[in-house]
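User: Predict structure, ligand adenosine-5'-diphosphate.
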Amino acid sequence: MAKSEFDIIKQYFAHQQQQRDDVVLAIGDDCALVDVPANYHVAVSTDSLVAGTHFLADADPALVAYKALASNISDLAAMGATPAWVSLALTLPTIDEAWLAPFCHSFFELANRYNIQLIGGDTTKGPLSITLTVQGLVPQGQALTRSGAQVGDDIYVTGNLGDSAAGLALILNQSQCEPSLAAVLVERHFKAQPRVNVGEALRGIASAALDISDGVIADVKHIGDRSQVAIEIDVEKLPVSADLLTFCNGDRQQAQQLALTSGEEYELCFTVSKANRDALAMALAHTNVKYSCIGQVTTGRGLSLLQLGKPLSWKLSGWDHFGVTNN
Ligand code: ADP
Ligand code: MG
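Assistant: Predicted complex:
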């Protein structure tokens, strides 16, 4: 007999994880119940992935699950929140267990790594799509918003930028390179790591933060707009990996273009006052995550690109619609 929606929920989603102590009631009732500690906010974020728009319908379900959950966890990290609970609304054209098994395996592996528990959801029939609502905890008054940047603050990013775009170009067959390097860059695209420990460490130190999902040049503008300040990025300060430089045959300018526009990095971009510079170094020392100062918050509005403090010697093509000034 064909399996019902209830069989599927029971087999694939219920009791697949270690229970968190703060989950009073998980999958199986009309609602989940969770305990929220006193003096904490719940940070909530939802994202949908739709087949044909955000991934190909025949994409590896393990990678789809990773992408769906990692991008949502990255939003919690960007807020300075600690991941706690997640709900999953899954729409499937058919009950396809060859798809569900690797999807769930990958989903729960990542969920366990970040101690985020699946507490409920919905399972429906229709065109393939995945909607996650994640919830995390952040001490009241310490969430990292986009609106707190102040003139004079330094702008930082974690990790390296650009590897994900290089990996995507390889996946889409728009570029070629030596196979072992290609494998590294493709892995960086598919398995970018949300920076939860950095977000937690930045509480009380960063004035603004967000995660890089559309490319630092597009994302940092949100901090400028929400904080009503201008942003200056020095392209020579963008952190690029040795692998990316090899991929670009040593062409720094090409690597910098990729670093500016690469999406789905899940690196954090944040602003910190000069007074907090030493506190930042102390706070991030234990995370083992590299971070780099890439620019300054200044008076005015908009985003300008510099090269060693001087006007850029090249033009960033195709980004006029972001209102970038190449000065
Ligand atoms: P209801 O009719 O009350 O919406 P459902 O039959 O949709 O309940 O779901 C039964 C239980 O299973 C609920 O607790 C719901 O949260 C959970 N659930 C359904 N689908 C999923 C899913 N894909 N992942 C996790 N939990 C799910
Ligand atoms: Mg339902």
